[in-house]
């Protein structure tokens, strides 16, 4: 490519949809893509936080539940020019495996796996028709290791599914101009980790196993997504980019 290397990271004018971006990691991803020049749509369940989040980065907001396949299809049909899709919406339930309620298992699988697939399928179709597009999902280091003794069997399984779905779609769509990758963050300081997890005991256990000895800040995940979304990663597909302070190494 004759372009200077930093130009490869510019995504000026491209339309990016980021799911679950009202707060946390998703918001920082949306902000980073906007700073790199994208027209950003934040698609999230939560309009109260999401509207203001989108306005703060010069983006637009759409209410979306990624588990509602009809709503995902309708949004993809209304936004046929999306070239970058970031599947970031995700939930966690902390329950010992033997006590996991049916609804917790299903909720985690439905948001983290079904939701990612519905968005890939519906937005991917227009990308394939155009012969150009980049999909990046937020998986997790929990999709690579079991995180014992943390009681998150459903979450871990769901994120492993995202990593392998990424490889599968990458293989199917590689010759048709659509790249599919994921990022796998380690523990990141967001509302998700604050809910019930961020206790002194938890910090002692988990930070002790993180070579860098700290949580990630949400803005530290965004550059990995920008790389994968941009032409800088033009020969990269099916990859899981780990951003975890050395946890899984
Ligand atoms: P968070 O809970 O702070 O934010 C999640 C966002 O997703 C919220 O704005 C929420 O409204 C939205 N959301 C939830 N269900 C949705 C649905 N059905 N449809 C549309 N939007 C929905 O979470 P956080 O920590 O920012 O996590 C973002 C992603 O990163 C998730 O996929 C999570 O699994 C993943 N992740 C988080 C890590 C962490 O330590 N915080 C580590 C590794 C991965």
From TrEMBL:
Entry keyword Oxidoreductase: yes
Gene Ontology terms for molecular function: oxidoreductase activity, acting on the CH-OH group of donors, NAD or NADP as acceptor
Gene Ontology biological process terms, A to Z: carbohydrate metabolic process
Record-annotated Ig-like domain positions: 151-249
PROSITE patterns named among the record's database cross-references: ADH_SHORT, IG_LIKE
Transmembrane portions of the chain: none
Keyword set, alphabetical order: Oxidoreductase
Pfam family, one: adh_short_C2
Keyword Electron transport: no
Family of this protein: Belongs to the short-chain dehydrogenases/reductases (SDR) family.
Name this polypeptide is given: 3-oxoacyl-ACP reductase
């Amino acid at each position: 490519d004759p372009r200077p290397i930093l130009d490869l990271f510019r995504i000026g004018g491209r339309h990016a949809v980021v799911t679950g971006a009202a707060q946390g990691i998703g918001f920082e991803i949306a902000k980073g893509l906007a700073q790199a020049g994208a027209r950003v749509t934040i698609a999230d369940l939560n309009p109260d936080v999401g509207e203001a989040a989108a306005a703060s980065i010069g983006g637009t907001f759409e209410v979306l539940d990624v588990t509602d396949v009809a709503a995902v299809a309708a949004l993809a049909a209304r936004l046929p020019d999306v070239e970058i899709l970031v599947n970031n919406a995700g939930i966690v339930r902390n329950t010992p495996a033997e006590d996991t309620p049916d609804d917790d298992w299903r909720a985690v699988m439905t948001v983290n796996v079904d939701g990612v697939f519905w968005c890939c399928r519906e937005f991917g179709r227009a990308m394939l028709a155009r012969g150009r597009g980049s999909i990046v999902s937020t998986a997790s280091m929990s999709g690579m290791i079991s995180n014992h003794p943390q009681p998150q069997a459903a979450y871990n399984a769901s994120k492993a599914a995202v990593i392998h779905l990424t490889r599968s779609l990458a293989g199917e769509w590689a010759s048709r101009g659509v790249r599919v990758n994921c990022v796998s963050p380690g523990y990141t300081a967001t509302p998700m980790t604050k809910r019930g997890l961020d206790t002194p005991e938890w910090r002692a256990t988990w930070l002790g196993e993180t070579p860098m000895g700290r949580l990630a800040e949400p803005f530290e995940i965004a550059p990995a997504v920008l790389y994968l979304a941009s032409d800088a990663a033009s020969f990269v597909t099916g990859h899981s980019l780990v951003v975890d302070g050395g946890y899984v190494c």
